[in-house]
Amino acid sequence: MQTKDLVALAEEFGNPLYVYDAEKIESQYKRLTNAFSKVEKLRVNYAMKALSTVSVLKLLKNLGSGLDTVSIQEVQLGLHAGFTPDKIIFTPNGVSFEEIEAVAALGVQINIDNLSFLEHFGTKHPTIPVCIRINPHVMAGGNENISVGHIDSKFGISIYQIPHVLRIVENTKMHINGIHMHTGSDILDIEVFLYAAEILFDTAKQFKNLDFLDFGSGFKVPYKKDDIETNIEELGKKLTKRFLAFEKEYGRELTLAFEPGKFLVSEAGYFLAKVNVVKQTTSTVFAGIDSGFNHLIRPMFYGSQHTIENISNPKGKERFYTVVGYICETDTFANNRRIAEIHEGDILCFRNAGAYCFSMASNYNSRLKPAEVLWKNGKGHLIRARETFEDLLQNQIMVDL
Ligand SMILES: *Cc1c(COP(=O)(O)O)cnc(C)c1O
């Protein structure tokens, strides 16, 4: 997308505004599937918690994607967007047993990540196939070290507990049809990913009737200049080779699955907000925008660095700014950032606003959530209307006792 397109969209739809570039989502999807084109059965399950707006789900569905979901409501949204149950996988953590049963009853593949539910589910529903989520205890160290023993993670069944899993399977006669891992956003480099994959292969050997191996995600995309990025093409080459060899060894064709969120939608997103005030203090210049962590919380929540551009004055001389929001709490988007000279009324654009931005938005400070626009074929399509005051009152019951 070009700067002038974003400026025009802010004028057409108002601000603050989320914009998603459909072509970028498509090209990322194709990059991933091309990297693994030698795998006969490849499944990409978009991790919809990154951005769950139904028009985006539809776009991914039309590309051939499946869905990775973490709540029954996400499953329902996916079905609403037109995904069939067989294209959805449910990978929750910490949800109730009843919720897992309800999702399984919809015909969606479930993924269980604790021994207690595995035993209970296998006893009650021995004929429903179940995938297990393992914890391979791998994470990337501060540099390129592989450190083993991510023992504190609440996710997955420890690989040291596989003997107990096998005992449960034997006792209940349940069918384990997939092995899953999601090492999270800790995994920065391919060697670490491949190392974790070996652990998954080792685990898989112990189950005889698998249909798929799910390698989760954790693919990195660049957030700032010179940022690290997962080399998907290289990962594709190396993991494909290893996967095909494993299939031979295993003696049965398997589906290779991934569940990327960020990789598919992060770079496609732009968040546009107007500068309300430029405030010079004794130590810095603040640019205060018409938004806050109610709309985009990643910088405050995770310390994420979103590139910020002044699209109203892209050629202006760069100066240092601290970009802050309007929430009555500290809500700093960026500290001492070089941005083209800002005037009150200018529109700032936050890059990488596709993943974990709108989907984490709230109504804090009784503010309204922004509108969302999908950009396709040189045109902006409204996919979510800006909230109105009535939305704030919806479901409230005013009693005057
Ligand atoms: C969040 C999540 C993903 C997606 O992670 P990204 O870093 O956005 O790619 C995939 N799988 C599971 C189980 C998740 O919870």
From TrEMBL:
Pathway: Amino-acid biosynthesis; L-lysine biosynthesis via DAP pathway; L-lysine from DL-2,6-diaminopimelate: step 1/1. PROSITE patterns: ODR_DC_2_1. It is an enzyme of class 4 (lyase). The modification N6-(pyridoxal phosphate)lysine is found at residue 49. Keywords: Amino-acid biosynthesis, Decarboxylase, Lyase, Lysine biosynthesis, Pyridoxal phosphate. SUPFAM superfamilies: Alanine racemase C-terminal domain-like, PLP-binding barrel. Residues 18-354 form the Orn/DAP/Arg decarboxylase 2 C-terminal domain. Pfam families: Orn_Arg_deC_N, Orn_DAP_Arg_deC. One of its GO terms (molecular function) is diaminopimelate decarboxylase activity. It comes from the Bacteria. Residues 23-266 form the Orn/DAP/Arg decarboxylase 2 N-terminal domain. Substrate binds at residues 298, 302, 329, 356. Pyridoxal 5'-phosphate binds at residues 218, 356. InterPro entries: Ala_racemase/Decarboxylase_C (IPR009006), DAP_deCOOHase_LysA (IPR002986), De-COase2_C (IPR022643), De-COase2_N (IPR022644), De-COase2_pyr-phos_BS (IPR022653), Orn/DAP/Arg_de-COase (IPR000183), PLP-binding_barrel (IPR029066). Its EC number is 4.1.1.20. Its cofactor is pyridoxal 5'-phosphate. It catalyses: meso-2,6-diaminopimelate + H(+) = L-lysine + CO2. Homodimer. Belongs to the Orn/Lys/Arg decarboxylase class-II family. LysA subfamily. Specifically catalyzes the decarboxylation of meso-diaminopimelate (meso-DAP) to L-lysine. This is Diaminopimelate decarboxylase. It comes from Flavobacterium sedimenticola.
